[in-house]
Queue: 2 jobs
Job 1
Amino acid sequence: MKTLLLSRDDIETVARLLLAGELVAVPTETVYGLAANALDENAVAKIFAAKGRPQDNPLIVHIADKHQVYELAANVPDVAKKLMDAFWPGALTLVLNAKTCVPGIVTAGLSTVAVRCPNHPVMLEIIKAAGVPLAAPSGNRSGLPSPTLASHVLDDMDGIIAAIVDGGACNIGVESTVLDVVGDTPCILRLGGVSQSDLEHVLGIDLSIEKHGGEKPRSPGQKYRHYAPNTPLTVIEDGTAVSDGFDSKVVLCPEERAHLYKNSIVYGRLSEPETLARGLYAALREADKRGAVGIVAVCPAGEGFAAVRDRLHRAGGMG
Ligand code: TXA
Ligand code: MG
């Protein structure tokens, strides 16, 4: 299959492809997604095949307007409404009770559905033009770092999907925060673009974070290794002593630490935490291309870096 490279001028073509059951990679403010019509089981099945994604890992359904949530979810609790008002469109995914119209392949057979209204003008135009909710995981091959540029998607999906819409670099750079609001108390299933403290501030309660691992996590995706480059990756805490062994490796680090290492790739600045999230996945992909014997990633310390710390630790197999 020839993968078309499209832009925001091609929204009608994108909508036509999606309604014909094809896969299209789309920009969002977090990472690029691999979209299909969420109500078309055959189209959604293609997502799992293209990514090599385990069938038991459910997908996020994307909507263009918060009122669309009622088409997909039943018994939407007040706490969800409060969060939708505060954070949508944005990098927050809510896990809600699914209506029966949501195909089982989207929810991986769970009784819940994850829904997000993304904050990206091109993605919102695409959802509106298609007129259907779009199921979209991150647009990487399963296990690799998520794509934050159209070229990253092309590296993973060329010849496998119908089209890629180039919407430029993703502004946030890590995936959405996933919050389960089905139980008695909301629980963070995945840290991401919206911080724990911002959620707690709006809700006026302390939130817990679901631990990774285990056979049956509440968020099935948490049990798989993720975000990892092909080159062996070691994650070290910022402040760890520099060792000679690093000379043969490529070191991913904040700009403030680059002078410490012989062969470094800067992925952002400690003084502006959002730049580290924005640059992380591109740096991991770039490091892979350098062909070094190993990658060392310097992990920043502190609550402001929670999503970056989570991704690095899981990429390094320490999640
Ligand atoms: O920012 C994002 O969330 C990006 C963009 C494209 O929107 N999407 C994304 O999708 O990261 P994906 O498939 O890579 O990650 C979705 C996560 C997985 O960990 C999955 O297990 C979890 O959300 N998830 C999906 N549906 C769920 C459900 N019903 N219950 C619990 N977890 C769910
Ligand atoms: Mg993913």
Note: The first strand starts at residue 4 and ends at 6.
Job 2
Amino acid sequence: MGEIKQLPQNVANQISAGEVVERPASIVKELIENSIDANAENIEIRIEDGGRKLIRVKDDGHGILAEDIEAAFSRYATSKIKEIDDLYSLYSLGFRGEALASISSVAEVEMLSRHKSEDAGVKIKIKGGDILEQKPAGATVGTDVLVRNLFYNTPARYKYLKTTTTEFSHISRIVSTEAAASSDISFKLYHNDRQILSTPGNGKLKDTIYAVFGEEIADNLLPIDIEDRYIKLSGYLTRPELTRSNRSHELFFVNKRPIYNNITAKAVESAYHKLIDPGRKPIVFLFIKVNPILVDVNVHPTKRKVKFSRNQIIYDVISKGIRKTLKEADPTTRIKLEKNREAESEEENNRNDSIESDDKKVADDSLTNKKEAQHENLFENTFNKRKSTQRSKFKKNNRPNINDSRDSREKNQNKKPEINIEESLAAGISDSFNEEYNIEADNVNENRFKFLGQIFNSYLIIETEEGLKIIDQHNAHERILFEKLTADFNKKNTDSQSLLIPVKVELSPEEREIVRQYKDVINEFGIEFSDFGGNTILIQEVPVLLKNKSTRNIIEELIAELSEAGRGLTAAEVEENMIEYLACRTAVKAGKPLNRKESIQLIKDLYETENPYRCPHSRPVMINISRDEIEKGIGRK
Ligand code: ADP
Ligand code: MG
């Protein structure tokens, strides 16, 4: 007998399950899509223990014929592909007839279904691929699937499951997305018997968005409707004032199926560029209809990663379409966009100017900038002018010049939203530059230093025995606050204060769940909140440190931090993340002029920290230029 053997069907199904069933959320997605395909009008999803204990999806679709119920669980069995050609069109995306087979090979599945043409239903129980029971049963028209004991026979996969909160947050994201994709279906989601989500199913996308994502988003929606030769866009965007800290609210659908695609996300983000703060992400619900010639069938079976064959066309239509929509809908946006265009045409003109006149312009700008910075629009104009001036210079001579460093500084700052680019550029040359300093030694423990001044409104310069030190004021302050907050937190001594007017924060069901899970930690940080019904919470108290900041954004970003942290971090790590975040958000920004007294205090405080050399994100706080290096550079040595 040869050595090569056919794998038993069950094992083959388990292997295939690895592809289809990544985690409870993937099962939820497959079951929901089966219900959608069965023309259900109501889909009820009940989850217990993040899906570990139970995943139940019940629909009122057309149901399954009693004679077909067994076949539904065998591999490559599907009622959905009538012609093989369907496989190559987007409409059959993901119909591979293996979901139920895969799921039932790694769990205990019970299905109760009654076809609309039959008087009675049928019940089937399958465990690890084996049929345990099959018999007629009373049922209403539709299908009810219960999945229990997920991964009971694949311990390696079971171990890979994350916390209940994390798994449920994936499920909730899937259900929210599917609900947005099908506004004509009413979705209800329960976790451990608590209702998390309920959509009306009245066919109105706006009402569905209201139900899933809350009033604030629903009230700020701008409809988009663009038709091009190859692609049709519809759905909603939100005004640039309303953003999120990650891509969780960028939803794309191709032919009503949720998809993930980098190009569409990039196109959207490019359209919002300069209208929203760097690091923030827009909110879009974009339904895309494409000419099939632009879609590659090269798709991931479960993740729905669609590949477009002519990316550039898709990118351009989306990005221009969104700009047009934003421009028509919102007067403030229009002003900003036109300023950008002015800047671009100026860039054209500048190509013919001499380098000298460009330099003069930059200098002129920095002199007048301080006053202008007060006025946002005016300033935005200047800022764009400056940028275009620099860009045009780059085009003309490709060699490095003095502006290179500024340009790269801008780039770096774009990555770090905490640094205020506008301020640092607008301030130009610091006043303190010309201030005269008394030479004086400040004794801090054993660290003697002489404060020399602040440069670029961002760095403090001191002389010490080791040499000349350049201290990054933001990183330094972040280190100080980080240690102070850690100490306060350990002493349970976070100062907080009540808000005069409580701030309403609307959360997604997923975010609500995370807040519920981490309520104690959040409270310990001095953030007090109460339920406001649905997924809305009312923030009543915030840490004193945050008193003048935008509570909405801070809470939201904190929640984003926590949802990241939820993926496998310990409680101590979660705390550390929150502290890092608060320190970063509240530390003095680069670009802020500091007076002598403030500077010296900051340096003293820094030297009292445990690690004055690194900020909590491990970026250097200071650099040192030794006397030796200076003397070598100057040629004395
Ligand atoms: P696929 O969806 O790719 O066809 P599945 O394994 O998910 O493969 O389902 C197999 C078959 O079982 C489907 O083609 C369909 O005929 C039937 N089926 C599954 N779920 C339902 C449901 N909720 N309502 C009606 N029929 C269903
Ligand atoms: Mg299916």
Note: The longest strand covers residues 496-506.
